[in-house]
Specification:
Blueprint: H1 2-27, E1 31-38, H2 45-64, E2 68-70, E3 75-85, H3 90-103, E4 108-111, H4 115-128, E5 132-134, H5 163-182, E6 188-195, H6 198-213, E7 218-226, H7 234-241, E8 247-251, H8 254-267, E9 276-277, H9 287-293, E10 301-304, H10 320-331, H11 337-356, H12 361-369, E11 373-374, E12 384-385, E13 399-406, E14 411-418
Parallel strand pairs: 1-3, 1-4, 4-5, 6-7, 6-8, 8-9
Antiparallel strand pairs: 2-3, 10-13, 11-12, 13-14
């Protein structure tokens, strides 16, 4: 009897084991895995946390609505978010993306805030043929000789205003708004101080090419570079001050930008009545920038495609208030630009997978190339999210804000000053 009883137990166990083994492949298809490659540790960790929060919010929204219909699976599948921490470094990005691709086997990689870090991960992403939707600004993600309309090569879809776009827009703003006030009939004297990385270099290139191609009345008096993560800019700033620029354009990550502006005013003694500071990079537009910069930022400008506090005029910005409320209700703080970018990308990826009807990477890449969906939070030119067929870039609406100290909240607050159709007021020279 004991032998029979033991035999029965073993037989039942074998059946259960076999059933679990048979169910394993199906279980692997119960979720769509999205890999967020961003900085969760290191100097940019606060911005990475913004991306994680916003992405998690979007994932929960998609799942609450029933998930994503995948025809080949004959089911609606939920989204699962996996984080790859690039540790605010190139080496960390390579390690993180390896885990996302090899261990987590994600269907899509997205996000990021450092162009250099995303570029370091790109070779592995291309090797594995995984769809990649980066949110840093360098156009080098897609503007390389190897990229083209061949989907086996073009698995990258860039969802951020590129450095070329931002640099060109800065040149336009300076000529149209500041030159009449600061230079009269002569050329506007402009100095740049930018991060020595693909991010900084492409911002400056966009500016320089617009000045040259449009023969703008701008004289570039300096183009100084600093290392990623550098904190002391006083030597560079002193050198630039001696050149007598009308405008100093500092371009770095949020923390770098805050330090550069503070040191320019407090330590080196830039007079904001004589030298304008900005517009700084759109990537700095998050709550900590307004808080940390302090009174010295009064009168400076920031180029934006999303504002932490202001809302431009027009129907294209109608979703901003509801999104901010949902984010703040959940996390007790407001989102920044790079968080908003990550939020949008989750919805873009979900929509592309549903259009593909498959989790096959090549089919998802093909669907992303044909995306034409209503804009999410960020305002798009024409109101639609599209990736152009040549460079796989999206076209955003950009605007400039001027900072003013608000005694009530003891922080800076922005006013949209350009372009005119979005502006709340005109730029005011301090």
């Amino acid at each position: 009897m004991k032998r029979a009883f033991l035999g029965a137990i073993l037989a039942v166990g074998a059946l259960v084991f076999a059933a679990l083994g048979a169910a394993a492949p199906a279980a692997a298809q119960t979720a769509i895995t999205l890999g967020l490659l961003t900085s969760m540790t290191g100097p940019a960790a606060s911005t990475g946390e913004d991306q994680r929060r916003a992405a998690a919010l979007a994932v929960d929204e998609v799942n609450a609505a029933g998930g994503v219909l995948v025809r080949e699976a004959n089911a609606k599948l939920g989204l699962q978010l996996v984080i790859g921490d690039d540790q605010t470094s190139r080496e960390g990005a390579v390690s993180a993306v390896t885990r996302l691709l090899v261990e987590d086997k994600v269907q899509v990689v997205f996000g990021g805030l450092g162009s250099a870090f995303g570029m370091a991960a790109l070779p592995q992403i291309r090797e594995h043929g995984v769809p990649y939707i980066p949110t840093p600004s360098t156009p080098l993600f897609t503007r390389t000789p190897e990229m083209g309309p061949d989907p086996t090569k073009s698995m990258v879809f860039h969802y951020q205003a590129t450095g070329l776009m931002q640099g060109a827009t800065i040149a336009d703003f300076l000529v149209r708004e500041l030159k009449p006030l600061m230079a009269g009939r002569r050329a506007l004297r402009v100095a740049w101080m930018y991060q020595d990385s693909p991010f900084g270099a492409e911002l400056y290139r966009g500016f320089a090419e617009r000045v040259k191609d449009a023969t703008l009345p701008i004289e570039a008096v300096a183009a100084e570079r600093f290392r990623v993560g550098e904190t002391d800019y006083r030597s560079l700033l002193t050198k630039i001050k001696g050149l007598g620029p009308d405008v100093l354009v500092p371009q770095g990550f949020r923390g770098e930008t805050v330090a550069a502006v503070q040191q320019a005013v407090v330590d080196v003694g830039f007079d904001l009545k004589k030298t304008h500071l900005g517009p700084v990079c759109a990537c700095a537009d998050d709550p900590l920038y307004y808080k940390d910069l302090g009174k010295v930022g009064h009168g400076t400008t920031i180029l934006s495609l999303y504002s932490t506090y202001a809302i431009p005029k027009g129907a294209g910005f109608a979703k901003w208030a509801a999104f901010r409320k949902a984010y703040q209700d959940r996390y007790g703080t407001l989102p920044g630009l790079l968080g908003v970018s990550a939020y949008d990308v989750v919805h873009i990826a979900a929509g592309a997978i549903e259009r593909a009807g498959s989790l096959d990477r090549k089919k998802i890449i093909e669907a992303l190339g044909k995306v034409e969906m209503d804009q999410m939070v960020l305002a798009m030119q024409g109101g639609k999210i599209r990736f152009d067929p040549k460079y796989r870039e999206a076209a955003f609406v950009l605007f400039v804000q001027q900072m003013a100290w608000d005694d009530k909240v003891k922080e800076l607050r922005p006013t949209i000053v350009w372009p005119g159709e979005l502006a709340e007021a005109r730029y005011k020279q301090p």
